[in-house]
Amino acid sequence: MPAQQKKIIFCVAGALSFACALGTAAAVGTQLWVQGTILCKTGALLVNATGQELEKFIGKIQYGLFYGERVRQCGLGGRPFQFSFFPDLLKIIPASIHVSVILFCTVLIIFALVGTGFFMFNAFGSPYETLHGPLGLYLWTFVACSCGCLIMILFASEVKIHHLSEKIANFKEGSFAFKTHSEQFANSFWIILVCSLVQFLNALLIRFAGFEFPFSKSKDSGTTTGAVDLMY
């Protein structure tokens, strides 16, 4: 492939990787990871509420990785409550999983930015080490994509398996019991999915630029070529 086309492909991949880093950073700082509704089970049972009457006992909840808000309704109107995961909810949530999600988000941002730098370096510079060539491009892209997948798996398990919304809804509730009425992943969670797909797309762009996967060797070649030979 001509060098000019490779530059264009690398510039596109670099721009996508940079957008991925910005998107992840923005997603981490929001509370739009999960949105749902919570039912005041105790209040509904006291008055034997059914049908439209249940609406008076259904509140709202939304949260992210650091903070969130819930609106409890027990027949007397909505009462909002702001909460923070650190340190408020640290004792009732699966802290190891939650911290791991935050750490993988950080790693994803870092490697997406590193990948952006290497894409631009390969587009406009002359690679002088292996990690500046195809191996480095595949490596940074693979790590970023893997982190995105781990974030989604861990956070989904925290919400669904460990019933995170229900634990938050019952935080500091003595006489009233709440249960999750409905919940769905919100925009910030899907941004992570898009970022993972972007990193996978970048790997395809590297292959499209004419680079074989770094760990596969050509059967016809009897000599080992370096990153400079692969690039130019």
DSSP summary, beta strand count: 5
By secondary-structure content and strand pairing, the structural class works out as alpha+beta
Supply the number of structural domains: 1
Which CATH-level-2 architecture? Up-down Bundle
Distance between the termini: 10 Å
Q: Main beta sheet, described?
A: 5 strands, antiparallel
Main sheet: strand order: 4-3-2-1-5
- Which parts are unreliable, with pLDDT below 50 for 5 consecutive residues or more? 218-232
Mean pLDDT: 84
- Strand residues, percent: 15-25%
Helix share bin: 40-55%
Q: What is the string of SSEs from the N terminus onward?
A: HEHEEEHHHEHH
Annotated CATH topology: Butyryl-CoA Dehydrogenase, subunit A, domain 3
Contiguous helical run count: 7
Shape: elongated
Radius of gyration: 24 Å
The first-level CATH class name: Mainly Alpha
